[in-house]
Amino acid sequence: MAVLPLTPGFGRKEKNMERKRLVEKDSPLKKDDRIVITGGGGFIGGNLALYFKEKGFSRLRAVDKKPLYEWYLRVPGVENLCLDLSREDHCHRACEGAAEVYQLAADMGGMGFIERFRVECLRSILINTHVIEAAYRAGVRRYFYSSSACAYNTTLQQDPNVRALKESDAYPAMAERGYGWEKLVSEIFCQEYWAERGIKTFIARFHNVYGPHGTWDGGREKAPAALSRKVIEAVDAGRKDIMIWGDGHQTRSFMYISDCVKGIDKITHCDGLIATPINLGSSELVTVNDLLSKIEKIAGVKLKRHYDLSAPRGVAGRNSDNTFIKKVLGWEPDTPLDKGLAVTYKWIKEQYHKRKMGQRVVE
Ligand code: NAD
After folding, report:
1. Total domain count, the chain
2. Residue 362 pLDDT
């Protein structure tokens, strides 16, 4: 039986005040155990439902507040429930009979959204407080929480040539306004539910996730999808130029969706990671200019670049330090960006042309 600190990731002073909790072995997950994915109508939640379905799990429940026709993926055989998880009663219904809960519901989007709608982002605290309490009361064995690299101290991200962020860099805290602070507080909920109540919680800090079946238009999309769509639009309209947000020198890493869902599974089933925030991201750092060049290469075009310096651009640079995940899991997200982008670009192009032909698509 392992012994884990109750609030890992805090500073030395707080560590002295920590008590220890014994990690008791729980029964291994059976294929007919109930798995609940909240935010299952969204990008990562939908892909996670598909992942578990393909692994042979037969009692999956996906929950989202969007009407079903707006879900990115509706996986056959999965129980899909439309519930508003900012409501406590709906959370109890969502978690009924669950062995594991994967909490991916949030009001979020790309940089344009999280810089403009901080209140909406902060209000996701309602979802996180109610879902974890409902999961605890339902006797859930494992609880996964989707945190974000936006929880990291922003003062460490002011240069495009960043040092990759390691897990301890969240403290002393100076998270991204709105969205990042909400993530940090919700992480603490996970840590204290383990410390005080003994529910095994797992926390991954995602770094930009991209891939098919995600948002690609409408204002919530992230850079890989937004730039892919802009290139597709330019080609389709015979235009020779493109607008980029910021000066193009911002650096980021991007994780392909199949690495993300695999990582969620690995993290949630590793007792050494209970209540311990961990990076889940690619460490392949690129500038936004590099990202566009890769997409242009896939599309077979070269566009003249214009830079909108007044548009939201986020921090100057951000990368994932994967030392810890490699140490504990012997693995890290490793799909090359070129490979993942080729699949994503093709999928967005199909959606774009379907929509143009009047077919219903989810954006
Ligand atoms: P997404 O927007 O595609 O999915 C989130 C889903 O949550 C949406 O379908 C939305 O309808 C649902 N939702 C919002 N409010 C709800 C409510 N009150 N009740 C029920 N459902 C509600 O986003 P995603 O990219 O799949 O992100 C999933 C999680 O991962 C989120 O917590 C997000 O903050 C986190 N994350 C994502 C990224 C990324 O790059 N995609 C990066 C860091 C963290």
Report:
1. 1
2. 79
Token pair 């930009």 is found at 208
pLDDT value of residue 16:
43
- Range(s) of the domain holding residue 80: 2-209+255-280
Q: What CATH number is given to the structural domain containing 198?
A: 3.40.50.720
Answer yes or no: is 50 within a domain.
Answer: yes
- Residues 161 and 152: their CA atoms lie apart, in Å, by 16
The whole-angstrom separation of Cα 316 and Cα 307 is 15
Q: Name 191's Cβ contacts closer than 8 Å, sequence gap at least 6.
A: 6, 7, 8, 9, 201, 203, 275
Q: How confident is the model at residue 157 (pLDDT cuts 50, 70, 90)?
A: confident
Residues lining ligand 1, CB < 6 A?
A: 39, 41-45, 64-66, 84-86, 104-108, 127, 146, 148, 206, 208-209, 215, 222
Whether 153 is in a domain gets the answer yes
Nearest ligand 1 atom to alpha carbon 47? 26
User: Which one of the listed residues 51, 179, 193, 210 is annotated catalytic?
Assistant: 179
| Residue 183: both structure tokens together | 């993530």
Instruction: Tell whether 140 is covered by a domain.
Output: yes
pTM of the predicted structure, to 2 decimals: 0.94
In a domain, 154, yes or no: yes
